[in-house]
Amino acid sequence: MPLHWTIDSKERLVTVVAEGKVARADVEAYLDALVGAGAIAYRKLFDGSGADGTMSGDDMMALGVAFRGFHASGPVGPLAIVVPDGNVEPLSRMLGILAAADRPMRVFHEVAAARRWIESLPKAEVGK
């Protein structure tokens, strides 16, 4: 599976590493896991530096709609996204959708910087 995630309920932090070609179904499985764990409001670190950005525009838009749908149902946690320099353009539409959300979000080119930022933010209050 090209997405590997850890949901840490104590730290209220989700860490995701993407490797290779990531399909819409992979992201949907991840979103299902977030919902099942009650982790939508957790802080999220998404390391896409090893991912292949070849998902179709239609798939990206469908996932964008799903992401936006979470905002209608309650708080969504901060997001740090790591992308290599060359992959910002293919992800720009999705990043625009995510950036429009009412939550802190930043794009990074290095995992260490992203981790420092996301861990500096308060833990989610949901479920406490």
Describe it for me?
The mean pLDDT is 84. It is globular and about 35 Å long. Helix content is 38%, strand content 26%. α2 runs parallel beside α3. The protein contains four helices and five strands. The protein has one domain (3-120): Transcription Regulator spoIIAA (2-Layer Sandwich), CATH 3.30.750. The longest helix has 16 residues, at 57-72. By secondary structure, it is an alpha/beta fold. It has helices spanning 24-37, 57-72, 92-99, 111-120, and strands spanning 3-8, 13-21, 43-52, 79-82, 105-108. The protein has a five-stranded mixed beta sheet, with helices on both faces.
Can you describe this structure in just a few lines?
With 128 residues, the chain is α/β, with parallel strands linked by helices. It has four helices and five strands.
CATH architecture: 2-Layer Sandwich
- Residue stretches low in confidence (pLDDT < 50, at least 5 long) are none
CATH class identity: Alpha Beta
Mean pLDDT: 84
Instruction: Characterize the largest beta sheet: strand count, sense, and whether it forms a barrel.
Output: 5 strands, mixed
Helix content: 25-40%
Summed up, the domain count is 1
Q: What's the alpha carbon Rg, rounded to whole Å?
A: 13 Å
**What is CATH's topology name?**
Transcription Regulator spoIIAA
Number of helices: 4
**Strand segment count:** 5
Report the span from N to C terminus: 32 Å
Query: What is the succession of H and E elements?
Result: EEHEHEHEH
Main structural class: alpha/beta
Strand coverage percent: 25-35%
Quick one: overall form? globular
Q: Which sequence of strands runs across the widest sheet?
A: 1-2-3-4-5
